[in-house]
């Protein structure tokens, strides 16, 4: 049967693997001119470990994982060190949790995909007409196609979700924060560390392939065009202007440089949908059930949903309507559990008040004493 997948990142590449593995004819389209690079190291954990094992890629992921390095200083608004953060306190370097860069994971997923899958870059879906006999699709490059299933794996701002299920505002809930990432340029000695003021975290870490700047800020929803990079840079510049200490002015310059590599900015949001399928269209990954960056479960959910969808749809002979109840039964409890994790991440990563910040730092100091002893 013919399957069209929109989006070539963790969800889309995993889905391409599984649908092709079950013998279907798969086409993947991607808006960018290749796999979209960038991002901080992400976690493959929980049920995704089993998925990766069944895909035969767990050893590759393990071989390319990011090693968690020495503890980093935690700084106050003046740049003075007030605690130490050792990520090993929170990560459990066992088979249950592996951190790897987005780019490396996407390359591993791509390499695992069976031969015969067609990739078309720099294109997008313009129109979806779903009916009993399948889905007619018109693409932005003026070509057309007919498929038995269309899978939207095109991220938080999903185009497939918009076309088949309705506007973003009906499904995407702002989780009260924005995140920005940028690869930091050579020509300066970047100090690793994390500076906090209430509601704002600014960090420099080694992301596996060089130093990376990260900003996480508490903010209500801002009305801007999410594709307007200049608007994004202006917002980051405003957020970072609250701090003058440490290397924040240099970080601000890096974030607002239009030539900077690895630039990424988006809201920290969750996607909540009553159903992830409608007719012969399904949405997976951030498009259907984004858990928000603060959960650390987005990639895991994307990989697990891809396997669950392809397996269930195939079991039901390619009849999405018949497969839908089983698919939701299999996936919904795990999505709910993963989305709940995001509530735990926010107070640790971005304490909202000075009191919360002081308490968080005291916890870090207590951990440091406990693990040292
Ligand atoms: C550049 C980037 C950096 C990220 N950095 C982090 C990070 O540091 N930490 C973190 O937790 N999460 C990060 N994420 C999100 C993370 O990748 C996802 O939460 C998670 O892995 C689920 O993946 P996904 O495949 O559902 O979505 P995504 O990884 O967002 O992938 C969606 C894909 O769909 C493509 N696409 C979008 N619109 C269209 C369209 N109209 N037609 C065709 N293709 C389209 C995009 O180009 C992209 O390749 C990042 C995402 C991106 C795109």
Mean pLDDT: 93
CATH architecture of the largest domain: 3-Layer(bba) Sandwich
By helix and strand content, what is the structural category?
Answer: alpha/beta
* H/E topology pattern: EHEEHHEEEHEEEEEHEEEEHHEEEHHHH
- What is the helix tally? 11
CATH topology category name of the largest domain: FAD/NAD(P)-binding domain
- Anisotropy-based shape: globular
Number of strands: 18
Helix content: 25-40%
Identify the bound ligands.
flavin-adenine dinucleotide
Short description:
The protein is α/β, with parallel strands linked by helices. The protein has helices at residues 10-21, 47-55, 58-63, 102-112, 159-164, 229-240, 248-255, 286-289, 298-315, 320-349, 354-372; strands spanning 2-6, 25-30, 42-45, 72-75, 81-85, 97-100, 118-121, 125-131, 134-139, 144-147, 149-152, 172-183, 193-197, 200-206, 211-218, 264-271, 277-278, 281-283.
Task: Explain how this protein is built.
It is a single chain. This protein has 11 helices and 18 strands. Strands 5-4-13-14-15-12-16 form a 7-stranded mixed β-sheet. The chain has a 6-stranded mixed β-sheet with strand order 7-2-1-11-18-17. A 3-stranded antiparallel β-sheet has the order 8-9-10. The protein has 2 domains: 2-68 and 100-171 and 270-346, FAD/NAD(P)-binding domain (3-Layer(bba) Sandwich); 175-268 and 349-372, D-Amino Acid Oxidase, Chain A, domain 2. By secondary structure, the chain is of the alpha/beta class. The longest helix has 30 residues, at 320-349. The radius of gyration is 21 Å and the shape is globular. The mean pLDDT is 93. 36% of the residues lie in helices and 26% in strands. Flavin-adenine dinucleotide (FAD) is lined by residues 6-12, 29-32, 36, 38-40, 42, 102, 124, 153-155, 159, 181, 264, 285-287, 293, 298-299, 302.
């Amino acid at each position: 049967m013919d399957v069209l997948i929109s989006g070539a990142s963790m969800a889309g590449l995993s889905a391409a693997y599984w649908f092709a593995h079950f013998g279907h004819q798969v086409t993947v389209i991607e808006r960018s001119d290749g796999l979209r690079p960038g991002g901080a190291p992400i976690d493959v954990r929980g049920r995704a470990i089993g998925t990766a094992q069944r895909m035969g890629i767990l050893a590759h992921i393990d071989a390319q994982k990011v090693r968690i390095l020495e503890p980093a200083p935690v700084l106050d608004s003046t740049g003075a060190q007030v605690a130490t953060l050792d990520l090993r306190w929170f990560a459990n370097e066992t088979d249950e949790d592996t951190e790897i860069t987005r780019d490396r994971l996407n390359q591993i997923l791509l390499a695992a995909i069976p031969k015969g899958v067609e990739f078309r870059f720099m294109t997008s879906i313009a129109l979806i007409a779903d009916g009993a006999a399948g889905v007619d699709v018109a693409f932005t490059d003026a070509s057309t196609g007919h498929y038995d299933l269309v899978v939207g794996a095109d991220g938080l701002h999903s185009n497939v979700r918009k076309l088949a299920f309705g506007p973003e505002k009906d499904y995407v809930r702002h989780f009260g924060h924005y995140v920005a990432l940028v690869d930091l340029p050579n020509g300066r000695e970047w100090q690793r560390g994390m500076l906090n003021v209430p509601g704002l975290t600014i960090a420099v870490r080694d992301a596996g392939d060089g130093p990376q700047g990260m900003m996480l800020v508490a903010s209500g929803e801002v009305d801007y065009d999410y594709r307007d990079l200049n608007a994004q840079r202006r917002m980051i510049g405003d957020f970072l202007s609250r701090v003058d200490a440490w290397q924040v002015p240099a970080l601000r310059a890096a974030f607002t440089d239009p030539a900077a590599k690895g630039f990424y900015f988006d809201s920290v949001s969750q996607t909540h949908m009553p159903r992830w399928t409608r007719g012969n269209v399904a949405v997976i990954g951030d498009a259907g059930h984004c858990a928000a960056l603060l959960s650390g479960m987005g990639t895991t959910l994307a990989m697990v949903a891809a396997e669950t969808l392809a397996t269930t749809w195939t079991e039901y002979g390619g009849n999405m309507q018949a497969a839908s109840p089983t698919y939701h039964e299999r996936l919904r409890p795990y999505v709910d559990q993963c989305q709940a994790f995001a509530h735990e991440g926010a107070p640790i990563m971005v304490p909202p008040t000075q009191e919360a910040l002081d308490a968080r730092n005291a916890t870090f100091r207590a951990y440091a004493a406990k693990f040292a002893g």
